[in-house]
Design goal:
CATH architecture of the largest domain: 2-Layer Sandwich
Number of helices: 11
Number of strands: 11
Structural class: alpha+beta
Radius of gyration: 19 Å
CATH topology of the largest domain: Ribosomal Protein S5, domain 2
Shape: globular
Length: 306
């Protein structure tokens, strides 16, 4: 048996929602083809796109497939062929997309009947390979689609909300290397002032209410973080952070670092996306950065394709 799946890029945090908020994007996305093989092992081949490890233990999708095969006592293994279109280390959930595609494919190939929450748990194991922590804020939206809230304590709860229908997204990926996601997590403060906590709780609440009420202006206002993003900017991980936030205010858009960066996500009305894309591209060019720009919108989770 053979199947092909499409796994979306995702944007985690959206400002104040560190390790809690995530949004699936319609573009870019990875494609992974999975095939059942008789031996209990995992083979990986990268056919197109960015280079990623082909050793199963070092590849987020390969690691997930191995853990599922071993942990569930499956008879046989899988061969994964990857079209890697989401740049690793971009802040767009590249590692999560591969992990999610593998979890989804193994579930289908072996007719396991796992629900979405179980798939999230398995896919999160892939983040151990890339980040050292099985965080869920990328894998959850890559499975559920749309906007998700992840609560892990005292037990896992995932809440899915359809974003406002006219919510548009522009993602700008400046041509810089941020280093590893693990490094980006290491610079996050372990303690924060009470004033900063109150600010972030208020903004996170506004963002969630905006998603639920289909109010884009509330979503924009909620995308403001005074804890994680500034710390990463001070560590040199997010270039031109203060200036791009000011540009967001001028554009009447919500601006946040996408995941651990360096990508930046801009939330704006769909009919104003091209205006924002051009302004952001000009901004980074004026600072000497090349950039990839994606004019997109919220999208579905992992799906099987022909």
């Amino acid at each position: 048996m053979r199947l092909r799946v499409r796994a979306p890029a995702t944007s985690a945090n959206l400002g104040p929602g560190f390790d809690v908020f995530g949004l699936a994007l319609r573009e870019p996305y990875d494609v992974v083809e999975a095939e059942h093989i008789p031996d209990r092992r995992v083979e990986i081949e990268v056919l197109e796109g960015y280079r990623v490890p082909t050793k199963p233990e070092e590849n987020t999708g390969g690691y997930v497939a191995l853990r599922m095969i071993e942990g569930l006592g499956l008879s046989g293994g899988t061969r994964l062929r990857i079209w890697k279109r989401i740049k690793p280390g971009s802040g767009l959930g590249s590692s999560a997309a591969t992990a999610v595609a593998a979890a989804y494919a193994v579930n289908k190939l072996f007719d396991l009947g796992l629900g979405r929450e179980e798939l999230v748990k398995y896919a999160a194991l892939g983040e151990l390979v890339s980040a050292g922590v099985p965080h869920l804020d990328n894998v959850a939206p890559a499975i559920y689609g749309g906007f998700v809230i992840v609560c892990q304590e005292p037990e896992l709860r995932i809440y899915s909300i359809d974003p406002p229908p006219d919510l548009g997204v522009v993602v700008v990926l400046p041509d810089v290397e941020k280093g590893s996601t693990k490094r980006a997590r290491e610079v996050v403060p372990r303690e924060v002032p009470l004033r900063s906590l109150v600010h972030n709780v208020a903004r996170a609440t506004i963002l969630v209410a905006g998603m639920a009420l289909k109010n884009i202006n509330m979503v924009k206002k909620g995308m403001d973080d005074v804890v994680v993003e500034p710390a990463r900017a001070r560590a040199g991980i997010i270039p031109e952070y203060e200036e791009v936030k000011r540009l967001g205010e001028e554009l009447d858009a919500g601006i946040a670092v996408s995941g651990a960066g360096p990508a930046v996500i801009c939330v704006i009305e769909k009919d104003r996306r091209n205006l924002a894309a051009e302004a952001l591209e000009r901004f980074y060019a004026s600072r000497g950065y090349g950039a990839q720009v994606y004019v997109t919108e919220p999208g579905p989770g992992v799906t099987e394709i022909e």
